[in-house]
Each structure stands twice: as structure tokens, then as C-alpha cells.
Design goal:
Elements lengths: L1 H20 L7 E6 L10 E6 L22 E5 L7 E5 L2 E5 L4 E3 L2 E3 L8 H10 L3 H14 L4 E2 L5 H8 L14 H9 L3 E3 L2 E3 L10 H10 L14 E2 L11 H6 L7 H13 L8 H26 L4 E2 L4 E2 L6 H10 L3 E4 L8 H11 L3 E5 L2 E3 L12 E3 L2 H17 L3 E6 L32 H11 L2 H8 L2
Parallel strand pairs: 7-8, 7-18, 11-12, 13-14, 14-15, 15-18, 16-17
Antiparallel strand pairs: 1-2, 1-17, 3-6, 4-5, 5-6, 9-10
Helix pairs in contact: 3-4, 6-9, 9-10, 10-11, 12-13
Length: about 475
């Protein structure tokens, strides 16, 4: 037995030495995972090099940084405004909390009670009331190093909990300006993960849209003085992209404001639809984005001027369009990105998000699904792994990549609770997958959370370590 231990120790030492010679600050482990590709099934299992805290060379878990009620680093104080804000200090962006301390927002999306019959039955048996559920859930989130909640969370329950809590949970309402206007106007439809529009062209050129936004935003004035509100999202995954110009031009109604705006934009530049370059298409996408962000930003700042505008949760190819990011950066405090398809965040992509927008970013959706949950995991864009431990490894690997970027201020994991396959009338992307930190019957995945907790509780030490 002793010989086996000595042999294993020798292998570990050899790997450490090899990693240091290669310029790495960690000894990689390897996790088997399956990609999700739209409209394809039975993807092969692949092995991905993975970085976890336990295998970081020279990092000590004993060097914990003291934190305040917001989960912020209190070792140095900066200007306090009474609200969350962002500031670039040197070459790194930071969130500054209401008290003036460095903060890394670490949240969970969709912190709310499930609506399926089975989930509601489990809720009644375990919690019996929303207040009890919120107290237990908040305690669990805080204990595991989370300090906030993301889109689609039960805001009123969180606000009520915060009234008497020593440690509040921050919250981030998603106001759904365009989606709400579309439902009133007519013409939208459900797509997996987001809302569809005619030719995937949003109604931003409708004269009524700006009026709608100003009236619709009046209700946020009730949050205007709440220090625990981190910021607002305006929508989710809007189809602003390179196809917009042709999409507007192909609308059947030639009196549609979108068609007329696109036609006018083309005429001013002497362009024809048969000779459009990719640059033309990107410029028009930026034009759409400029129009959208200017309108919703004005509405937000009118009724909640002290709170941050967190953007519209960009995703997919639009995150590579410079003109769109540039437009978003003019109006948003933080650029929000829903980031899928990459086991490890891409350095070039993260660099460009800040370079184009001149703003910091936060990742507002990412997740990994495990087969030991008992769910089939056929829906949703995240990777699939074998076990909850592998999910923990994937979380650490992804978040270490984010912490290494000096432009990332934080993240929201998707999401609180697993999909329930028996649920009716749900988003097609949320049918049968292990996305949650709890099951659809409110059982916590402890062997997943242990790895999330280890990283979440050490973010400030990790930032210092990774920045060396």
C-alpha cells in the first residue's frame, strides 16, 4: 500500500514539474463531455482538458479574503455611491458595491418556485409557503458563495426576504421591453430559449415603441432606491444580427416602419440588396442595436437613474459583431453575454467584447448537464457530462477562465431548478434537462455544489493569484 502511495506522489510531482515547464499554473485533469449541437443528436463524447482549484500550482485555500454582507472584498474601500456601479482600475474592471468595495456578482438564474404539478406538490410537502422556501433557498445560496439572483427570479419574494436579512441577495429584473411590446403589437412567437419576430426583425423602428418603453418603465420607479438591486436587463437574446437588413427588406408589408427604415438606410448609401457586403450587414445590425439601446436606456434612466443597465443578454454570432457591441457600450454599464458552446472561455472573444464596447462584461447564462440526474438532457445548449462531480469540475474550469479576464466582472449560472419533463406549456429548450442546483423535486445536488462553493468563496484570492 505504501508503495502505491509513493508511486502516486511521484506521478503528481512529475506532472507539477511538467506543467511549470510548459508555462501552465495548473495540472490539468480530463473530463469527458458531449457537446450540444442544434438539430443534431447522438454527438460523440469528447475529452476536455480541465482546470480545477485543487490542481492550481501554488494556490492556497487558506488565504480567504474578508467580505461584507454583499460578498465584497473589504480590504480596501473606494468611492461609495449607495448603489452598485462599475469602474476600471488600472487594467481591470470591477463592480463596486453600495458601500464602496470590490464586488464579484455571482448569481443563479430563475430562482423561483416550479410550476409543474409534481414540483408544486413537492413544494407543499417541503416548504409550505413562499416565505419559508425563500429563507431556506437564500441561506443555501449564501452558504455556497452566491450573492445574487439573475433573470426570471421571484423578485417580490427576494425583496421581502431582504427586509430582515443580515445578508441580502441582489436581484436583476429582466424588463422584456421588446418582448412585451411585441405581445401587445402582435406578430411574436415562441422559439427555443427566446422570442421570435417576423423575419427575426425586432419592432424597434415602430414609432410607438419608444412611447411604449417610457410608459412601461414607470413601474420600475418602485425599485429606484433599493440598494440591493444590482441592475436591469432590458430583454433576452434579441435577434439582432447580420441577417437583419435583408430580413427587414423582405417584410411583406412595404409600409412597415422596419421595411421603410431599412429601405431608407440602403438608399442613403446607394446600396442594392443583391450587392450587400458583410460589412454592410454588420453596419446595419449596429444601426438596429443603436436604435434599440438608446430607446430602452432612456426609459431606464428616467425612472431608475442610479441603477445599472446590464444590456440585453447577447448570444451567439451577434457577440462577434463589433458594430453591435460598440452600440451597446454607448448605453450599457455592463455588456451581458449568454455564453454556450465553449468548454473554456475564449480569450480572444473576451478581449474583443471589452475592446469593441469599452465596457466590462458579465456572463449571464452558462451550464452543464449530468447524466446521473436521471434526466435525458436532450434540450438546452450546455455540455453534457457523466456526473455531478464533473459538473463541478466544468463550473470551476469555466469560471477560472472568466476570473482570468480583466474585463469580466461576474456571472449568473443557469439555473436554480432542473426542468420537469411533465411540465406543460414550457419553453422548448427547457423540457428534460439537468440544469439546476436542485432537482425538480427540490433536492440539492451536494456533489455539484461542493465545487461551486469552493470557487465562489475564493474569487478574490483567485483573482490575485491568476493576475500574478
Amino acid at each position: 500500500m505504501m508503495k502505491i502511495c509513493k508511486k502516486r506522489k511521484a506521478v503528481i510531482v512529475m506532472l507539477f514539474c511538467s506543467s511549470m515547464l510548459c508555462g501552465q499554473n495548473y495540472v490539468p485533469i480530463h473530463v469527458e463531455a458531449q457537446r450540444w449541437v442544434k438539430e443534431k443528436s447522438n454527438m460523440p463524447w469528447e475529452t476536455f482538458e480541465t482546470r480545477i482549484i485543487d490542481n492550481l500550482i501554488g494556490f492556497s485555500l487558506e488565504k480567504r479574503v474578508p467580505t461584507n454582507k454583499y460578498g465584497s472584498d473589504i480590504t480596501k474601500k473606494y468611492k461609495a455611491t449607495g448603489f452598485f456601479r462599475v469602474e476600471k482600475q488600472g487594467d481591470r474592471w470591477w463592480t463596486i458595491d453600495p458601500e464602496g468595495y470590490h464586488n464579484v456578482p455571482i448569481g443563479i438564474n430563475s430562482v423561483n418556485c416550479g410550476r409543474s404539478e409534481g414540483t408544486q406538490k413537492a413544494f407543499e410537502q417541503i416548504y409550505k409557503s413562499t416565505e419559508r422556501w425563500m429563507k431556506v433557498t437564500a441561506d443555501s445560496l449564501l452558504d455556497n458563495g452566491f450573492n445574487g439572483t439573475g433573470s426570471w427570479s421571484d423578485i417580490e419574494a427576494i425583496i421581502e426576504y431582504n427586509r430582515s436579512a443580515k445578508q441580502p441577495l441582489t436581484y436583476t429584473p429582466n424588463l422584456n421591453f421588446m418582448m412585451s411590446y411585441g405581445r401587445k403589437r402582435g406578430g411574436t412567437y415562441q422559439l427555443p430559449g427566446n422570442t421570435g419576430y417576423p423575419n427575426q426583425c425586432i419592432f424597434v423602428f415602430d414609432p410607438e415603441f419608444e412611447t411604449f418603453c417610457m410608459e412601461y418603465a414607470q413601474h420600475i420607479s418602485k425599485y429606484a432606491s433599493d440598494k440591493n438591486l444590482f441592475g436591469f436587463f432590458s430583454d433576452n437574446e434579441l435577434p439582432i444580427n447580420m441577417n437583419n437588413l435583408e430580413g427587414y427588406l423582405k417584410l411583406e408589408n412595404k409600409e412597415d416602419p422596419g421595411y421603410m427604415a431599412a429601405r431608407r438606410w440602403m438608399d442613403e448609401r446607394g446600396l442594392t440588396i443583391d450587392k450587400l457586403s458583410n460589412e454592410d450587414k454588420c453596419e446595419f445590425a449596429g444601426y438596429v442595436a443603436e436604435k434599440y439601446y438608446s430607446i430602452v436606456s432612456k426609459a431606464l434612466k428616467t425612472y431608475a437613474p442610479n441603477h445599472m443597465f446590464l444590456g440585453s443578454r447577447l448570444h451567439g454570432r451577434v457577440t462577434r459583431i463589433e458594430q453591435v457591441l460598440r452600440a451597446a457600450g454607448k448605453y450599457c454599464d455592463i455588456i451581458s453575454i449568454n455564453y454556450y458552446g465553449k468548454w473554456t472561455p475564449e480569450n480572444d472573444a473576451m478581449t474583443n467584447w471589452e475592446r469593441y464596447s469599452k465596457r466590462p462584461f458579465m456572463i449571464t447564462e452558462f451550464y452543464t448537464k449530468a447524466m446521473d440526474s436521471g434526466l435525458t438532457n436532450e434540450t438546452g445548449a450546455g455540455f453534457t457530462v457523466h456526473t455531478q462531480r464533473d459538473r463541478g469540475y466544468a463550473y470551476q474550469n469555466f469560471c477560472l477562465g472568466l476570473l482570468e479576464s480583466k474585463s469580466c466582472v461576474g456571472w449568473h449560472f443557469f439555473k436554480y431548478q432542473d426542468n420537469d419533463p411533465t411540465a406543460q406549456n414550457v419553453d422548448p429548450s427547457n423540457l428534460n434537462s439537468n440544469k439546476g442546483i436542485v432537482s425538480n423535486r427540490y433536492v440539492y445536488y451536494s456533489s455539484f455544489l461542493i465545487w461551486m462553493k469552493q470557487l465562489n468563496r475564493n474569487v478574490y484570492s483567485l483573482i490575485s493569484y491568476l493576475g500574478q
